Amino acid sequence: MSIESIVKERAGAKCELCGSEDSLSVYEVPASPDQTAGSCVMVCGTCRTEIEDAETLDQNHWRCLNDSMWSQEPAVQVMAYRLLKRLSSETWAQDLLDMMYMEEDMIEWAEKGIALAELDAIKTVDVNGTPLEAGDNVTIIKDLPVKGSNLVIKQGTAVRGIRLTDNPLHITGKAAGTNMVIIAAYCKKM
Predict the structure, then answer these.
(1) Rounded Cα gap, residues 16 and 2, in angstroms
(2) Which of 31, 113, 39, 30 is nearest to 76 (CA)?
(3) Does residue 157 form part of some domain?
(4) Considering only CA atoms, which of 144, 150, 118, 131 is closest in space to residue 188?
(5) 82-135 tens-digit pLDDT
(6) Range(s) of the domain holding residue 146
(7) DSSP output for 36-75
(8) Which of 37, 104, 126, 163 lies at 20 to 30 Å from 25 by C-alpha?
(9) Which band of pLDDT confidence, cut at 50, 70 and 90, is reported for residue 32?
């Protein structure tokens, strides 16, 4: 039996978050501990859109979490927890979050996904707030001394074909013939 059919049967052909029967699909909960049906939820098109794009979040739609947060399915509990955290500025959502009970390992799973989402949301930007991508060319905006040497990268130096790092505040590139880590805030995209 496929994961989709297992989840659909478990959900009773309804969205496990809001109960809708329209445009159903399986959604794998990010940062899941495994790749089984237990790490997936059945969601409708509306829920999927709002989960994937925080800008479209309709707080009134998510009042349905009042019911789904009590699901026996860990993946549904984790999704309800994450969504309530996202809506925690709303009094009703914070009240539900305070009432919610989850096992420690489920809270850990939920928090791990929240942390990953926050990291994904942080973009590497230049001095003007312009997003930087791998392969972009930048110009250094002020003289930068290179740690551990007497070398100074002069203002106006071009760094071509930058690479992004795990830290969104830094980029790597070749300046003055040397590969180095550069603070993105001291660069301007060309």
Answers:
(1) 18
(2) 39
(3) yes
(4) 131
(5) 999 989 889 999 999 999 989 998 888 888 877 766 655 668 889 998 889 899
(6) 138-189
(7) SGGGEEEE-HHHHHHHH-GGG--TTGGGGHHHHTT-S-HH
(8) 104
(9) confident
